[in-house]
Amino acid sequence: MYAFSYSNPRTLDEVSAASGQFLAGGQSLIPSMKLRLAQPGAIVDLNQVDGLAGIRVSGDQVEIGAMTRHADVAASREVQAAIPALAELAGGIGDRQVRARGTIGGSLANNDPAACYPSAVLGLGATVVTNWREIAADDFFQGMYTTALEEGELIKAVRFPVPRKAAYIKFKQPASRFALVGVFVAQTTQGVRVAVTGAGLSVFRHAGLEAALNQSFTAAAAAAVLIDDSELNSDLHASARYRAQLISVLTQRAVDQMLSA
């Protein structure tokens, strides 16, 4: 490690007055610092800030505070009742240590191309609430490790609309347990949304699958959609062609799961 300043604010006003790299669960930042991939000169620890954690259900919305741990989302009876796919997704992130320390806000701000939470936020059409504004999911994710957040902007909560039905199916990379490909399918009041993680430089919606499933919500309709692999990731774990096949297969499985629920 190397020298850096550290602050431990207790209120949002104190956070606003501080400057530096925000530290949430630390599951991405700390390993990156150890490897010298990140070298912030100042750390602002968010773990003691009042009001940033917790789960609230109001009508047809579930609001999850940015500092809420993955394990708490997975164990929440409110989330399990309102959006069971979201609770299941949280319960499958990483391992027990990651779920005990990692936070939804930290995951979204980091926007790892293979992270699970971005697919739920985009698939459900959620809203990211910051200390300055509200950002629609479709505008939030902008590229690899890149979001709409500006310097000093802090995620306070994520507001999820409750879908009619939803499912998340992930094909895990066995060592990291990140998504080699993950697909989140949701039937919302605005129609079917299909969000894919692990396959591209950032989470994305698949317009072809959405159009097909809005016409006929069946696995056969999803299977008939050609998945273009020209802009998908290709690495030592899987080729772009393999990932394209996974997108199709996992979408079909998600649809079958939703129809049988």
Automatic annotation (TrEMBL):
Domain called FAD-binding PCMH-type: residue spans: 1-165
EC identifiers of the protein: 1.2.7.4
Entry keyword annotation includes Glycoprotein: no
EC category name: oxidoreductase
InterPro entries, A to Z: CO_DH_flav_C, CO_DH_flav_C_dom_sf, Diverse_Substr_Oxidored, FAD-bd_PCMH, FAD-bd_PCMH-like_sf, FAD-bd_PCMH_sub1, FAD-bd_PCMH_sub2, Mopterin_DH_FAD-bd
Single annotated GO MF: anaerobic carbon-monoxide dehydrogenase activity
Pfam families: CO_deh_flav_C (PF03450), FAD_binding_5 (PF00941)
Keyword Flavoprotein part of the UniProt annotation: yes
Gene3D superfamilies recorded: 3.30.465.10, CO dehydrogenase flavoprotein, C-terminal domain (3.30.390.50), Uridine Diphospho-n-acetylenolpyruvylglucosamine Reductase, domain 2 (3.30.43.10)
Leader peptide range in chain numbering: none
Keywords annotated in UniProt: FAD, Flavoprotein, Oxidoreductase
Name used for this protein in its record: Carbon monoxide dehydrogenase medium chain
Lineage: Bacteria, Pseudomonadati, Pseudomonadota, Betaproteobacteria, Burkholderiales
Gene that this polypeptide is encoded by: cutM_3
